[in-house]
Each structure stands twice: as structure tokens, then as C-alpha cells.
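agent> Task received from the user: take the single chain below, predict its 3D structure, and emit C-alpha cells. No templates, no multimer pairing.
agent> Plan: (1) validate residues, (2) run structure prediction, (3) serialize to C-alpha cells, (4) report one or two observations.
agent> Step 1 OK, no nonstandard residues flagged.
tool_call: predict_structure(input=
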Amino acid sequence: MNVTLQRSRLVFIAILLGGVVGFGLADYALANAGYPMVGGIVWAVGYLGTVLVLWYGWVRDLEFRGP
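)
tool_result: status=success, residues=67
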């Protein structure tokens, strides 16, 4: 397998897991500290940011049209 392709997949997975899990943990911590609205905003903005980074870095260049 191509090393660049493998590294690209690892970066994709790291961003995905870091974004979803990291912002989920931040939401949990803020909600338990008494700031549930701030936690929800942090989670929503972080999740959206993660999706946009993944779309811009990997999904945007995919061709979904048939022949």
C-alpha cells in the first residue's frame, strides 16, 4: 500500500476521532461544571468544524457522478 495514502487515512481518522470525541468530552466537562449551554455551543461548533475540515481535505475532491 502506498505510504502517502496510508498516512492520509491515519490523519483522516485522527481528525475524525479527535473532533468528535474531543468536543464531546469538552461538552460533557462544561455541562458538569454548570455551563450546559456553553458546552452545547462548543460541541456544535467543534463538530461542524470537524465536518468542514474533513469535507475540505478529503471529500471535496471525490467524484460522485456515474459514467
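agent> Step 4: summary for the user.
The two ends are 27 Å apart (CA to CA).
agent> Done.
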